[in-house]
Amino acid sequence: MAKLAEQAERYEEMVEFMEKVAKTVDVEELTVEERNLLSVAYKNVIGARRASWRKEESRGNEDHVSIIKDYRSKIETELSKICDGILNLLETHLIPSASAAESKVFYLKMKGDYHRYLAEFKTGAERKEAAESTLVAYKSAQLAPTHPIRLGLALNFSVFYYEILNSPDRACNLAKQVHFHGFIIQN
């Protein structure tokens, strides 16, 4: 059903189908295909809202400030709900049932990503908490330097340093370090 929902671009339904699958695998972990379907579902659901939030964030029309703030608040509520949903699923089902290193890193990367998405729009203590949770999740993930999931993790970690911590130097250093280690291993 999740594949059908994906083909129809009905990502909210795809999320529902994949949540059901994920909650039934307490003993065994998801297959690579199931894991990717879950990731695609959430990425599409959250991606549309993140784009909407960024668009509203960039508007500077003073005539409609109150309407824009209300709309942005609505989007932020939806973003929080989506992030909280996948983070709960990761914490209660997926990470505990992951026995393979690749699966665990995949889920930790997702955990870091969704905390990073929260940090994009939260403020104050909530932003700090989301940023710290992102850092912990990304640092907990360990795979071979050339593994594609690790490379994706490193890319997202660099984005986190750049966009959330406002540290372009750390972002560039991380990217250079990952590139260097991958190059050394390959040669």
Automatic annotation (TrEMBL):
<dbReference type="InterPro" id="IPR000308">
    <property type="entry name" value="14-3-3"/>
</dbReference>
<comment type="similarity">
    <text>Belongs to the 14-3-3 family.</text>
</comment>
<dbReference type="InterPro" id="IPR023409">
    <property type="entry name" value="14-3-3_CS"/>
</dbReference>
<dbReference type="InterPro" id="IPR036815">
    <property type="entry name" value="14-3-3_dom_sf"/>
</dbReference>
<feature type="domain" description="14-3-3">
    <location>
        <begin position="1"/>
        <end position="187"/>
    </location>
</feature>
<dbReference type="Pfam" id="PF00244">
    <property type="entry name" value="14-3-3"/>
</dbReference>
<dbReference type="InterPro" id="IPR023410">
    <property type="entry name" value="14-3-3_domain"/>
</dbReference>
<protein>
    <recommendedName>
        <fullName>14-3-3 domain-containing protein</fullName>
    </recommendedName>
</protein>
